[in-house]
Amino acid sequence: MKHRLIMLATGLLLLSTTSIAQPKVYQNLKLSDEKRVENLLNQLTLDEKIDYLSTDLGVKRLRIPSYGHYEGLHGLTLGGPGRWGKRIKNPDGSEGQIEYPTTIFPQSYGLGETWDPDLIRRIGELEGTEARYYSQAANQDVQKALVLRVPNADLARDPRWGRTEESFGEDPFLTATMSTAMVRGLQGDHPKYWRSAALLKHFLANSNEDGRDSTSSNFDEQLFREYYSYPFYKAITEGGSRAFMASYNGWNGITMCVNPILESITRKEWGNNGIICTDGGAFKLLVEAHHAYKTMEEGAAAIVKATTGQFLDDYRTAIKGALSQGLLTEKDIDKAIRGNIFVALKLGLLDCKDSRNPYLPIGRDTLATPPFHTQEAKALAREAMSKSVVLLKNDNSTRLLPLDLDRFKKIALIGPYANEIVQDWYSGKPPYEVTIYDGLKSALRGSGVEIKMAKDNKMGQAEQLAKWADVVIACYGNHPYGHKTDWKFCPVPSDGREAVDRQTMNLPEEEVLKLLHQANPNTILVLVSSFPYTINWSNEHLPAIVHITHCAQEQGNGLADVLLGKVNPAGRLTQTWVRSITDLPEMMDYDIRHGRTYMYSQRPVLYPFGYGLSYSKFEYQAVKTVSTDKKDEIRVVVNVKNDSQRDGEEVVQLYAAYPDSHFSNPQKQLKAFKRVMIKAGQTIPVELTVKKTDLRRWDTKARQWIYVPGKTGILLGSSSADIRLSTSLDISAGGIIKAAQK
């Protein structure tokens, strides 16, 4: 009898072990995503569902690994001024930080100025790969995360916005294109799995920092569809993003984290069946700043019922209180967290050991070179930096750039950013940094050119150095204040950052530039800035001006490549640079039709949207072809000639105008662009593709996209203000589009 009991117990143990080893239903790769998500949802206890309202995609009981969020606006953040690295306790009891290196690119504002979606996609690929590396490498003691808070799809409607540095620019089409490219790079092109999950920031119309915790961005539905939501719409419907963060502000009086459009538009219309999360602290602000609800329990219930499924602050007590008070049901939570589970599935977190996820090997080879140390990563960082350089001025009479080393044997490098790269709040820790001084010194090695540096003009040292030099390179701009934890710390009125908008737009160092120019007329301004300045004096008097942004680990090498002519600049502005702050509408006026952006501005500007110079000269010779053969596309082919002795890239821009439309019309709207290399003396056909649906307008009465019958102008040029050629299309109300008869 005893022997039989032992055999029975052994059999039960084997049966139990076998059943444990069997894949769960939600791990069954043969089932649809929907069935797998539904099955896991049914497996969770109520407490686990409440836990799943956080940023953690793991379930400990079911051995689903814990993965959270990383920031990543211009490189993965596992260190840097924002202290995104691992927090530790030092032996003396103080708090320390372990920083992990990652590839750091120019700020998003600079990445936008590349006008190169393919480059942005490749940057996304590297960033997603680095996230996999740190999350999967056995020798890396770091918080695991595969949901990356990037890109920022907000539009920089006003250059005073403190977070302009995080945006690709003011234009919805350009921002949509760049955001979509970043999403595709981050997530990859595998049909089943994602490399990482791209979480868009910040939905919606979040472009004032002062009062952002309680203000409302007010505008009509046409601007919602055609402008503010457009980059999010494209990044979700075409890029494939299935995650975004709701912004702090409200839209037309309703706070975004509880706004009904989260479900009615982004989920039901656009198909975002993934994550919607609050911004950090937004839950508390909903009650205490917006005063939208009297109690935390009411606020928590409203957030979940809006299908916002992740909180970025403490919420559990309030959620449990809302459940006990009948303000919230378990089904409400199910609906909100379903998208979190879907994202976990796409990342491969719900698979068993025989997963077919192609991204699992990343980081598993302990002998492989970490991705941020590879030559490919360094080359990509340098390419991004050089492509982001915008040449704002290069006087024809002096032609200082590119620097002629037979002419200039003594170079004075002046300013606070001549030998320092300042990382912003959302930067990580680069594996190395090449300052402007480092880059020029390296490039000039063996040339016989002498370079000297002065950080400032104390006791007139910068002026003396300028007198000594053949040419002066002055490096001035803003400070991102990434090292400060005081959210309201911006002592210079023209500086800005998260939580602080700019109060002025003048460059304080223009007074010093006057002295340097007086000492040496060959003074070049390298404006290292996160946003536009009203540099009217500099534009009038200095012979050459270049714009770059902060943070890039290859800042010095990339800039040296341009200054010395190794790379021909082709960066273009993504925002209108006004002449005066008085040319802007009031900060809280979100109706851009009142004079904002290149689409509606009526005043002369310093530099227009899309502007940037080259060392080459390009001619637009003819619109060769306008074809509407394809049902969903319009092809426009224009011949462009490089009428110079130097190979260079041109950014060909196509704008649409609506002379026959009864709508409130922009002067023009960007609808296509292409950055192309053209060899010296060569003429090439440049093909631009416009989606027919991108020529539709939003009808607020019918509440749908429509074709407005009549002529639509097609404008081609080198910037929004430099239109070289034009043609037109005839559009019917039914969407039939034909080339207009001449």
Automatic annotation (TrEMBL):
Keyword Signal: yes
Signal peptide: 1-21
A GO molecular function held by the record: xylan 1,4-beta-xylosidase activity
High-level lineage: Bacteria, Pseudomonadati, Bacteroidota, Bacteroidia, Bacteroidales
Keywords noted in UniProt: Hydrolase, Signal
Protein name (Swiss-Prot/TrEMBL): Glycoside hydrolase family 3 C-terminal domain-containing protein
Pfam families: Fn3-like, Glyco_hydro_3, Glyco_hydro_3_C
Domain of life according to the entry: Bacteria
UniProt cross-references to InterPro entries, sorted A to Z: BXL, Fn3-like, GH, Glyco_hydro_3_C, Glyco_hydro_3_C_sf, Glyco_hydro_3_N, Glyco_hydro_3_N_sf, Ig-like_fold
All residue ranges annotated as the Fibronectin type III-like domain in the record: 650-720
Similarity-based family: Belongs to the glycosyl hydrolase 3 family.
Species of provenance: Prevotella sp. GTC17260
GO biological processes: arabinan catabolic process; xylan catabolic process
Residue ranges that the Swiss-Prot or TrEMBL entry lists as coiled coil: none
